[in-house]
Amino acid sequence: MFARKLFTRLRIWQLLSLGMLMFLAIGVTWWHSTTHCGFPHPTVSVTSPLNRQVIDIHTASQLDMKLEVSGVQRTRVAFSPDDQYFVSLGQAYSSWGKNNPLEYPSHCSVTWILNVPAIPEFELRPQVVSNNSEIVVSWVWSAPEFQFSRQGNVLAVNNTQKQIIDVSTGEELDRLNWDSRQFSSNSMLFSPDGRWLFTATDRRILVWNAATFDLDSVLEGHTEDVRGLGFSQSLVSTSNDGTIRSWDLDTGESTILYQGSPQLGTSLAVASNGNIAISGIDYAGVIDGVSGRELMQLEPGIMEFSPNGRYIMSYRNDEVRIWDMENRSFLGLIDEGGDSRVMSAAFDPTSQLVAIAFSHALLNIYSTDGDLLSSYQVLQEGEITDIAFSHNGTLVALSWGSDDRQRGGIHFWGVR
Predict the structure, then answer these.
(1) pTM to 2 decimals?
(2) Band of residue 23 on the pLDDT scale cut at 50, 70, 90
(3) What are the CA-CA distances from residue 303 to residues 238, 260, 314 (Å)?
(4) pLDDT digits (tens, 9 = 90+) for 317-356
(5) Is residue 276 within 8 Å of residue 289, measured between CB atoms?
(6) Which of 5-9, 26-30, 158-162 has the lowest mean pLDDT?
């Protein structure tokens, strides 16, 4: 009897202790987010007048920096579909995390939203959305991914809060109601008709209503984790189970479009004509989006199609390779040499140019044949982390971060 009472008391004490620890953890998280993730607005410096001339083969050697936005570390950049807004995501040590004695300090995720049309009038007012409760440990230092809606007015951010943000105001509209983990990488996608937002977690694909952001349905069929989503003739997905599946959104059923080796889906890209590029550890290729027939084998890496669907590039480590899909031919290998790594690469809107950012803060612009057209040393310290062309082709934007991950910013380049 005495032993039973003692056990009951110990059990109650354990539950009370667990509750106190949970309460303390929530309190520390709130205190950290409200006290240590407040960052000032970035500083804006106009460096030269902006003209609206398109960057092309003839003008690629005549670029200079138009605008610099400085603040905390930047890792991802993108223009909205209508070029009305520009978004950059990044992370920085919290004011507590960078000085605390713990081995793995806390970080804060910070989103910048810029009004692009204000640039010519030098009235740019960057709007900063501080994702204050986003706390990330240092061994998974990576900025959340994000996707614009098809209209460009809404931003979906793949962070632990799964935020839906109004681009024009920077206000949080909603949060996708799922667990506390981020969704899988490369797995946040709006449907072409704007009705749905797709995300992936583990082996499942979640379908969200893009008007209410309520969960509509769950697609199941993969036997291993989903690694990428895209839209060809319909929704397609890659997985560690070695398959590409095509989904019927009316029935929720899928068909296997392609069967390959495990670890197939480390990179997926879909061309404007519906062809699908896939890459894994030991295989990369392009398949027909309808039949699943292999059209061409490539070298593994991060895959990207040109806007017109004719060219495709693959990049990893220190090399970029470009192919012509129309003629099924290899166009060239780009290698800066030395210990320089490829940080990011992008086609221009006309599919004539490839901009490549190297780790030594070097921005090179090539023709799609692989000919070097221009080279710019854009930083004296730090490294470029991402690069993007505006959809009208008049600007190329790059993000950067310092070696200590404390400072960073964005550069906008255009024709002199």
Answers:
(1) 0.84
(2) very low
(3) 14, 17, 5
(4) 899 999 999 999 999 999 887 788 999 999 999 999 999 9
(5) yes
(6) 26-30
Measured over the CA atoms of residue 365, residue 371, residue 372 and residue 374, the dihedral's sign is: negative
CA distance 414 to 116: 13
Give the per-residue pLDDT at 347.
97
Whole-number Cα distances in Å, 15 to 3, 163, 238, 317, 351: 18, 33, 43, 50, 62
Report CA-CA distances (Å) from 153 to 77, 81, 214, 215, 250: 16, 9, 18, 20, 27
Cα→Cα distances 146→160, 183, 261, 402, Å: 12, 11, 29, 22
Q: Are the C-beta atoms of residues 130 and 118 closer than 8 Å to each other?
A: no
What integer pLDDT is reported at residue 186 of this predicted model? Answer: 75
Cβ-contact 40, 20 below 8 angstroms: no
The rounded distance, in Å, linking the Cα atoms of 194 and 197 is: 8
Contact 279, 230 (CB under 8 A): no
Three-state SS letters, the chain: CHHHHHHHHHHHHHHHHHHHHHHHHHHHHHHHHHHHCCCCCCEEEECCCCCCCCCCCCCCCCEEEEEEEEECCCCEEEECCCCCEEEEEEEEECCCCCCCCCCCCCEEEEEEEEEHHHCCCCCCCCEEEEEEEEECCHHHCCCCEEEECCCCCEEEEECCCCEEEECCCCCEEEECCCCCCCCCCCCEEECCCCCEEEEEECCEEEEEECCCCCEEEEEECCCCCEEEEEECCCEEEEECCCEEEEECCCCCCEEEEEECCCCCCCEEEECCCCCEEEECCCCEEEECCCCCCEEEEECCCEEEECCCCCEEEEEECCEEEEEECCCCEEEEEEECCCCCCEEEEEECCCCCEEEEEECCCEEEEEECCCCEEEEEECCCCCEEEEEEECCCCCCEEEEEECCCCCCEEEEEEEEC
